[in-house]
Amino acid sequence: MSAPDPLAGLKDYFNSWAIRHLSCEPADRSAAEESIHRAYRAANLAPPDTIVWCGGPVEIAAQLASASADAVIGANVRNELHFDLQQKIILLSEIYRNEIPIAERQLANLSRASTATNEYEKCRQAAADINERVDNAVSEALSQLGVRVRHVLLRLRGQSRLLPRWSFDEIAIGPSQLTSLAIYEYLHDVLPRKDVTGSLHGLWRIGASAGWIVPHKRVCWIAERPNLLRLDATGHLHGPDGPALRYRDGWSTYAWRGVPIPAWLIEEPERITRSAIASTLDPALRNCMIDIMTPERFVKSGVPSRVHEDECGVLWRKRWGYPTSLTGAWAAVEVRNGTAEPDGTHKTYFLRVPSQMRTAREAVAWTYGLTAEEYARLGKRT
What is the pLDDT of residues 175-199, one digit of tens each? Predict the structure, then answer.
């Protein structure tokens, strides 16, 4: 009888995991608190005396800023709870080497297999974006001079560090770490040995119920899930008409295809003008402004230059900085839909392309993942 396939159903399992982690439903607080106790016990720690619920990670930061002395909350135990996941994979491969011969090869391919699970990859990208935005927001919230001075004085008195030195990830466990545990829950559920993966059960259950935790020996802060989470097709934060991410404590952030943007770009798009775009130094933000304005309006404003025209379309480009440099330049190809509308007209589209494109044919070919020569051989029109 052949050995069971450990990867059977992996895609469906990961996609189901992703749905839970992208949920904006209120946390299952009883399940989350039980999971915190379980995670502490797995790390050989006594469960915390107090679990403090917050509307979001920025509210946790506010509470940390005024937190009591170490004697009350205890030292941070983030490192004790958060295992080295890569070492776990190696250990799992060794355990199953003889018990399930097929598993060794498949375990080596797990990361490659997971890239085919679109929803899970989307979930992982969203988690990375959320971690970055939250880390920046928490750093800003904790950067006040009075807060820092207070905590320096606490450390001089011999009390443990309550605030992160550089990153919120130093003291917190968030979506990026929790979503990486999906494979362990899968292996725990489908393979016969549970002694290795079982120690992570508490952490992955926290991820299924809530958002962030900042664990200390006596007090564990935990944040609710976001109540708004909007993504593009690749999993990047993207809010075309409002915030892309908002927590129940009221903190929110705006993003355009993963790029952080100021709120006014979405709330007051009429303020995006030729001069506003020209005065923006960050190329990524500048491109977002053009996208929101729409490339068609930007071209019609007269700012970009017509670079090339052929039977495939028109290539437009705008350089900033040195006239000969393409660094930070913007380009788009104007194409006409080959299929006529009911009234006989043909729609025109403006497609963003890399700034180094030299011809309209090359630009259109790039949108199909082809070279200009390969596209010409196909004999296709857009």
Answer: 888 887 877 777 777 766 566 677 7
106: in domain: yes
Per residue in 277-335, pLDDT tens?
Answer: 999 999 999 999 999 999 999 999 999 999 999 999 999 999 987 665 677 899 999 99
Shared-domain flag, residues 135 and 17:
yes
The predicted model scores a pTM of 0.83
pLDDT interval class at 101 (50, 70, 90)? very low
Residue 201 shares a structural domain with residue 306: no
Q: How many CB atoms lie within 10 A of CB 351?
A: 16
Domain count, the chain: 2
Tell me the residue range of the domain where 298 lies.
Answer: 282-378
Rounded Cα distance, 323 and 310, in Å: 24
- For the ranges 84-88, 91-95, 306-310, the maximum mean pLDDT occurs at 306-310
Question: Assign residue 369 a region: left if phi > 0, alpha if psi is -120 to 50, beta otherwise?
Answer: left
Cα distance from N-terminal residue to C-terminal residue, the chain: 54
Q: Give the residue from 172, 119, 106 showing the smallest Cα distance to 141.
A: 172
Burial label for 108, CB within 10 Å (0-12, 13-18, 19+), is exposed
Regarding whether 79 and 219 lie in a shared domain, the answer is yes
In terms of domains, do 28 and 151 share one?
yes
- 286 in Cβ contact with 330 (< 8 Å): yes
Q: Tell me, yes or no, whether 172 and 84 share the same domain.
A: yes
Question: Could you say which DSSP state residue 302 is in?
Answer: T
**Chain centroid offset of residue 336 CA:** 35
How far CA 229 is from CA of 78, 184, 284, 315, in Å, comes to 26, 25, 22, 36
* Tokens at 201, concatenated: 């059960």
Q: Which of 163, 198, 229 corresponds to the end of one domain?
A: 229
Point out the domain boundary residue: 165, 195, 229: 229
Please tell me the distance from the alpha carbon of residue 169 to that of residue 253, in angstroms, as a whole number.
Answer: 19
Residue 104 lies in a domain: yes
Find the helix packing angle between 10-21 and 118-141, rounded to 10°: 30
**75 occurs within a structural domain:** yes
Tell me, yes or no, whether 81 lies in a domain.
yes
